[in-house]
Design a protein that fits this description.
Shape: globular
Oligomer: single chain
Largest sheet: 6 strands, antiparallel
Radius of gyration: 16 Å
Order of helices and strands: EEEEEEEHEH
Strand content: 35-45%
Mean pLDDT: 85
Number of strands: 8
């Protein structure tokens, strides 16, 4: 078998990259999923953009499914969902997610 080697400078690292921070926690979007929080913490927020709407000629998130997730990978995915809710608009979804995350990380 051939052995493959990858030079780190040729690959954009997701670990070493710069992220947008919101309240000193990473906020990362890939396609229709937005993750908020540090994976080294016991909980993170996942926001799934279910629908979008037009606003001044641009598509913006409309209906967003918010989940507070445990980062314990020994649990099955369905058992990692601590709380969930559907929200209208990114502002409401992020406010709810931040509130949940701060409460659970403080306890």
């Amino acid at each position: 078998m051939a052995e493959w080697t990858v030079d780190k400078k040729d690959v954009k690292s997701t670990v070493d990259g710069d992220y947008m921070l919101y309240r000193n926690r990473p906020l990362v979007r890939e396609d229709n999923i937005i993750c908020y929080g540090n994976l080294s913490d016991p909980y993170v927020i996942q926001m799934i953009i279910m629908t979008e709407k037009d606003f001044r000629g641009k598509k913006v998130p409309d209906q967003i499914y918010v989940q507070l997730l445990s980062t314990d990978t020994s649990k099955p995915m369905n058992a990692r969902v601590i709380k969930d809710s559907m929200k209208s608009g990114m502002n409401d979804a992020l406010d709810l997610g931040v509130t949940w995350l701060e409460r659970y990380l403080a306890s």
